[in-house]
Amino acid sequence: MKEEFNIEIKKDLKYFAGHSLGEYSALVASGSLNFSDALILLHERGKSMQEAVPEGKGSMLAVMGLKLPELNKYISEVKKEKGVCEVANDNSYSQIILSGDKSAIDEISTILKNNKKKSIFLPVSAPFHCSLMAPAEERLALDLNAASFVNPIVPLINNVAAEVVQTATAIRDGLRRQVCNPVRWEESIRHLILLGVDHFVEVGPGRVLTGLMRSIDRLQNTSNVEDVKSLEKLTL
After folding, report:
1. Domain 54-125 in CATH: superfamily?
2. CB atoms within 10 A of CB 8
C-alpha cells in the first residue's frame, strides 16, 4: 500500500534535490538508494567527518547580505598562514556559509565586521564542506563504492555540480565530492527554475529551505510537508 502511494506521488514529481545530508533523503525518495543503506552511509559519513578535524580546530561562519563574487574578495584578504577559509554553502543571496580553520574563519569574521558586513558563527562540531574534510572523503569513498545504487526513477539535482544526474555512477561520485566541496543550493534552485519547475515542496520539519527560496526567487510557488496532515493537503 505504501509503495503504491509512493509511486503515485512520483508521477507528479519531475526532480528531487536535497541540501547536504538531505541529498541522501532525496536519493531514497528518488528510488536510487535503499533506506537502510542510506542510514548506514549517513552514520559512516557523520563519523568520518567528525573525526577528520580535531575538535576546536575548525569553524563555520554564516555571512548575510553578500553575493558570492563580493564575498570572495574578502576571502582573498585572509592571510594564507591562517589556514583554510572556503565557501561551504552557497545557500542564497542572503546567506553564504564559510568553513575552514578556526584562525582563518576568525580573521574573515573580523574583516567582514570592519567592512560593516553581517556574519554569525555557527555552533557546529566540525568545518564541513571544505578541503579539511579530505580524510573523511577518502573514508566515505570506500563505503559509497560498497553500497548499492541504481539509476533514480526521478532525476536528482546534486549539490556538488548543481546539475541533473540520472545514473548511479554520477550519484555516487557526487556524494563523495560533496564532502569537501560546497553545497551549491542557490545554483541548484535556479537550474530547476530554468528546467521549468514552478512548484517546490520542502519535506521535513521547519521551513528553512522555503525561507531560502524567498531570497532566491520569491515568485516561485512553495509548499511544506512535515506530517501526515500537511501531506494530505499537498496539491501539485
Report:
1. Malonyl-CoA ACP transacylase, ACP-binding (3.30.70.250)
2. 9
Q: Provide the Cα torsion 81, 68, 207, 14; round to 10°.
A: -120
Euclidean distance between CA atoms 236 and 220, whole angstroms: 13
**129 annotated active-site:** yes
Write down the catalytic residue from 32, 59, 92, 129.
Answer: 129
Active site residue 199: no
Question: pTM for this structure?
Answer: 0.91
CATH 3.40.366.10 for domain 2-51+132-197, yes or no, is yes
Report helix, strand or coil for 65. coil
pLDDT for 178-224, tens place per residue? Answer: 999 999 999 999 999 999 999 999 999 889 999 999 999 999 999 99
Nearest to 62 by CA among 97, 94, 86, 87: 97
